[in-house]
Amino acid sequence: MDGMAAQANPDEAVPPDLGADLAAALAAGGRGLRLDLQPICAAASLAPVGYEALLRWDHPVRGAIPPREILAIAASVGRGIALDAWVMVGAFRLRATWPEGGPYLSVNISAGGLLKGHAGPMVRAALAATGADPRGIVLELPEAAVVADLAGAAALAAELRGLGMVVSLDDFGGAAGSARALRDIPFAVVKLDAALTSGLEDEGTDRARTAIASVVEMAHALGATTVAEAVETAGQMRVLRDAGCDALQGWLLGRPGPLAA
Question: In what residue span(s) does the EAL domain sit (predicted)?
Fold first, then answer.
């Protein structure tokens, strides 16, 4: 979990100066904010098939601010939706510069954006502002928010599909009600939560390997492809390949960085 996929903790104490600084950064067009990209690779060939846009903030005094903290700061000053919009426009504008038929760009919708009903209008506005081809964009919906509002998530997913986008269920397996979300909403992509993939090695238990294989099989049976997050070792990669996982993402295959990297 990273970037906009990280969920803010409403109980975190946020220094007032950081809230004011983030509000000022957004008012200045996103000064100090940036989007790094992390490759998503086909499991069989390890060739990049897409990239995930991940939010970063380089504060002029405090330095790099962790993604989860950025979201908490934005929420504390009522700028969560403005931050969502900045990420959406920045990511779509980047994808608009890529060649037609190139790798897809995966963008996270925050829990707040989904639960408060802002996501659909925000996506439409970002497409209009950037001219990006929606067919080259994957929108990731956080599982916890999907489970919290299945009807709203289903309506949003249908709206996004109507625009030509691919809709992904992010962090699958991290919240109660995961299977129902996958059953009720026809997601095209399911991203396996780090809780399912972290530490998974060739030496792992038969139960762990069977669980991963079962999740992948269930997703495939429902017409979805699978992406495993937090892949950090060759042992994990071998187990996930053997389980039939379609694509892999993690530090083993590439850390987040600027597009030029």
Answer: 15-261
Closest Cα to residue 33, out of 54, 14, 51, 55? 55
Q: Which CATH architecture has domain 3-248?
A: Alpha-Beta Barrel (3.20)
CB 253 within 8 A of CB 228: no
Q: Taking the model in full, what pTM does it have? A: 0.90
Strand runs (DSSP E) across 99-177, as ranges? 104-108, 137-142, 166-172
Q: Residue 140: what are its φ and ψ, rounded to 5°?
A: -95, 125
**What pLDDT score was predicted for residue 1?**
42
pLDDT in tens, 191-247: 999 988 876 875 557 888 888 999 999 999 999 999 999 999 999 999 999 999 999
Given a contact cutoff of 8 angstroms between Cβ atoms, the answer to whether 139 and 95 are in contact is no
pLDDT digit string, tens, across residues 132-189: 999 999 999 999 999 999 999 999 999 999 999 999 999 998 777 788 999 999 999 9
Domain spans of the chain, in order of start? 3-248
